[in-house]
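User: Please predict the structure of the protein below. I'd like the answer in structure-token form so I can feed it into my own downstream comparison script.

Assistant: Understood. Taking the following sequence of 368 residues as input:
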Amino acid sequence: MFNIKTITKGAAASVVGASLFVSSAFAETVIRVQTVISAKADEVVMLKDFGDDVSALTNGEVRFEILPAGSVVGVAETLDAVDAGLIDGGFAWTHYWSGKHPAAMLFGSPVAGAGVGIDNIAFVSWFQYGGGKELYDQLWDEMGMNVKGFMLQPVGPEALGWFKEPITSMDDFRKYRFRTPPGIPGQTYKDIGVASVAMGGGDILPALEKGTIDAAEWCCPKPDSVFGFQKVLKHYYLQGLHQVVVNADLYLNKDVYDSLTPLQQKAIEVAANASLSKSMSYRIYENGKALKDLTENHGVILHDTPADYFPAYMNAAKASLEKNAAENEFFAKVWQSQKDFAAVAVPYWAGSQASNAALGKAFADTVK
């Protein structure tokens, strides 16, 4: 199996009716990237948009070919396949690799905003200007992976989830077997007495239909509606803490990345930075349309999350973060960077966002 396909289009071209003769050689590098999700997912739509930007910025010299989950290797083997050069690149959420290093969670899905109030926009600020990018680059060395990573799609916050009946307190919440993400976010639910069950996205709806679980979370209105949770459950809660920030990232084999020219490498970096903004913009509108459809056409009832959920989950998340920091030096280093950033940025950002939230809520109340 080859990894990078180089096609040389050399030659001379003449233009009919003009005395113009062009001699050139054009090398096209095709980078094959396997995703961990369906080719129809919104994340893949945005990934292809990123690839189009890279192609435009390099005048077509670099092109990404996007492969759906399982095309070459299984989902769980994606990062190892990139490391080994079996595929040129992979696309996933970095917390998927928490089994290789616990600090992967702090980059892919920092539970409860890293315990220090970091939302998805503040997270991008930390990544770009607060030292996060340098630590992200170091993560791959800590894992022993021959990988160059790029953050592309910071999404959040994810919804608390879907329930059969309204919940008004943590006591109500604890009555349900609840699908959660794996790792620290799911363990934190167990720590506060919720019967947490981890499973893949494609297994959630069948499990709800069979009664294996009673309630579930996945992401946000658009992807949740694509899975069809509204067919089984009608009570929806938007405000959750388990994944306030979730990043879908691109992983390139380091040898593949190093084979590119400095200009081509810069084009990928610029396109990745653009994707950080474009993905958030895309998701706001897509989730808005989906939520409107769910509530107006599918009988979904939107609720506010019970107040006692927030301190319970936040306190348990902090305890889990502290435990991991005590056990792993690099985890502690990354988390300390996030805490140092938050001490400066979050008081400002939270205060200014309060007025934005009040402004939006005032309008939202008029269209209910």
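That's the full token string. The radius of gyration is 22 Å.
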